[in-house]
C-alpha cells in the first residue's frame, strides 16, 4: 500500500507539518518561533505555548496546500523525541486527537532517525550502508545506517552540541542568537590560521565541545585585558579560526569512522550542515578519500516535518504503528 500520511514535528522551536503520498513529500509547512530571539536561546515554556498557538494553522495549511482531505489520510505521524517535553507534548496530543477522530493509525518517529532519513526526500539518495554526521543546536552524532530503520549511533557528543558551541561562542563575542550563521558569515572574510584553540582528546568517535567554550571565554577575556577593542578589531579572524577548529574536530572523527568502517558514502544533516566551512572541508575529504557525499537542501537539514513524514512512510510499510498510550520522551535515543 502507498499511504498518505500527515506528519507533525514539534520537538524544539519549529512547528511543522508535512504530507507524504506514495513516498513523495508534497509539502513542508514550518512556523518558526521568533519569540526566543531576545532571550538568546530557546525558552521551553514559551516554545510549548507557541506550538499550541501555531499547530492548528500549520496542519491546516499542510492539508489544504496538498489538496488532501482528512478522509484520504491513512496515518498520523509525530515526533516522539528527543526534544523539549512541553513542545513534544503539543505534537503528540494533536496527533492522537486526529488519529482517534479519524480512526486511523498513529506512527511515532524518532527525531534523530528522521534527520538521517531526510536524505531520502530528494535525489541523490545514499545507498546502504552509509554514515551520517548529524549536527545541530541540540545534537552531534555519527550514525551508521544499514537500512531505513536500522541504524546505530557510533559517536556522539559527551556534553554540548556543536551548534551550541557556535552559538555560545557567538554570544560571548556579543553576537545575537543564533550566532552560528553569523560566525560563518564573518569567517568567510577572516584568516583561519590567526588564532589557535586547544584540542580535546576524546577516544573513539565521541566529541566534547564544552572545553572549547571555556577556552574561548578565557581567550577573549585575556586579550580584552590587553586591548579592549580586541574582538571588534579581529572579529573576522576570530570567527574564521573558531570555525576551522570546530569543523576540524567534526571532520577528524568522521574521517576516522569512515576509515575504520570502510564506508565511503557520507551524509550530513542538521542546522550546522549549512556551515560553509564544514561543506568545503567535506568536499576536500571527499576528493582526497573518494567519498560520495550527501547534503540535503537546507529546508530538510534544519528541523522540519518532511523528514518526520519520510520516516513515517518507511514505518508504515513495515507495519510499525503506535498505540494510544504512547508518550513523548525528551531523551529518546536511536
Ligand atoms: O537543526 P537546527 O535548525 O535546530 C536544532 O538545533 O535542532 O540547528 C540550529 C543550529 C544552531 O545552533 C545554529 O547556530 C546552527 O544550527 N547553524 C549554523 C549555521 N546555520 C545554522 N552553525 C554554523 N554555521 C551555519 N551556517
Ligand atoms: Zn533536530
What does this structure look like?
The chain has ten helices and eleven strands. The protein is of the alpha/beta class and 334 residues long. It has two domains: 4-117 and 300-317, ATPase, nucleotide binding domain (Nucleotidyltransferase, domain 5, 2-Layer Sandwich), CATH 3.30.420; 123-295, Nucleotidyltransferase, domain 5. The strands form two sheets. Strands 1, 2, 3, 4, 5 and 6 form a six-stranded mixed sheet that branches. Strand 5 (75-81), helix 2 (85-102) and strand 6 form a beta-alpha-beta unit. The radius of gyration is 20 Å and the shape is globular. The mean pLDDT is 96. The structure holds 5'-O-[(R)-(carboxyoxy)(hydroxy)phosphoryl]adenosine and zinc ion.
Quick description:
The chain has ten helices and eleven strands. It has helices at about 45-65, 85-100, 110-115, 160-170, 180-185, 210-225, 230-260, 275-290, 300, 305-315, and strands spanning about 5-10, 15-20, 25, 30, 75-80, 105-110, 130-135, 140-145, 150-155, 265-270, 290-295. The mean pLDDT is about 95.
What Rg is obtained from the alpha carbons, in whole angstroms? 20 Å
The CATH architecture name of the largest domain reads 2-Layer Sandwich
What does the main sheet amount to?
6 strands, mixed
Helix/strand/pairing category: alpha/beta
Q: CATH superfamily membership of the largest domain, which one? A: ATPase, nucleotide binding domain
* Total individual domains: 2
Number of helices: 10
Overall average pLDDT: 96
CATH class (first level) name of the largest domain: Alpha Beta
Shape: globular
What ligands does this structure carry?
5'-O-[(R)-(carboxyoxy)(hydroxy)phosphoryl]adenosine, zinc ion
Amino acid at each position: 500500500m502507498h499511504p498518505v500520511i500527515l506528519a507533525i514535528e514539534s520537538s524544539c522551536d519549529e512547528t511543522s507539518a508535512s504530507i507524504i503520498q506514495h513516498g513523495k513529500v508534497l509539502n513542508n509547512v514550518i512556523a518558526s518561533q521568533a519569540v526566543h530571539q531576545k532571550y538568546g536561546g530557546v525558552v521551553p515554556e514559551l516554545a510549548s505555548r507557541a506550538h499550541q498557538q501555531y499547530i492548528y494553522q500549520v496542519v491546516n495549511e499542510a492539508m489544504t496546500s496538498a489538496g488532501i482531505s482528512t478522509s484520504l489520510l491513512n496515518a498520523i505521524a509525530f515526533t516522539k523525541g528527543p526534544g523539549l517535553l512541553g513542545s513534544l507534548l503539543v505534537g503528540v496530543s494533536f496527533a492522537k486527537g486526529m488519529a482517534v477522530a479519524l480512526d486511523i493509525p498513529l506512527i511515532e518517529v524518532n527525531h534523530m532517525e528522521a534527520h538521517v532519513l531526510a536524505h531520502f526526500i530528494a535525489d541523490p539518495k545514499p545507498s546502504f550502508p552509509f554514515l551520517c554526521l548529524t549536527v545541530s543546536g541540540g545534537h552531534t552524532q555519527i550514525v551508521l545506517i544499514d537500512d531505513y530503520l536500522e541504524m546505530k549511533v557510533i559517536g556522539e557528543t559527551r556534553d554540548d552540541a556543536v551548534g551550541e558551541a557556535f552559538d555560545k561562542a557567538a554570544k560571548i563575542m556579543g553576537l545575537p542568537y543564533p550566532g552560528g550563521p553569523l560566525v560563518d558569515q564573518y569567517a568567510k572574510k577572516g584568516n583561519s590560521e590567526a588564532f589557535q584553540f586547544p584540542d580535546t582528546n576524546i577516544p573513539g568517535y565521541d566529541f566534547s565541545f564544552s572545553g572549547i567554550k571555556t577556552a574561548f571565554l578565557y581567550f577573549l577575556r585575556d586579550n580584552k585585558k590587553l586591548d579592549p577593542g580586541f574582538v571588534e578589531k579581529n572579529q573576522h579572524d576570530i570567527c574564521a579560526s573558531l570555525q576551522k577548529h570546530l569543523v576540524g574536530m567534526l571532520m577528524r572523527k568522521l574521517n576516522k569512522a569512515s576509515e575504520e568502517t570502510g564506508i565511503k558514502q557520507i551524509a550530513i544533516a542538521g542546522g550546522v550542515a549549512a556551515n560553509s566551512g564544514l561543506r568545503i572541508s567535506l568536499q576536500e575529504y571527499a576528493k582526497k578519500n573518494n567519498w560520495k557525499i550527501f547534503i540535503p537542501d537546507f529546508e530538510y537539514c534544519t528541523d522540519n516535518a518532511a523528514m518526520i513524514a519520510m520516516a513515517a512512510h518507511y514505518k508504515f510499510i513495515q507495519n510499525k504503528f503506535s498505540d494510544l498510550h504512547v508518550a513523548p520522551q525528551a531523551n529518546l535515543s536511536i
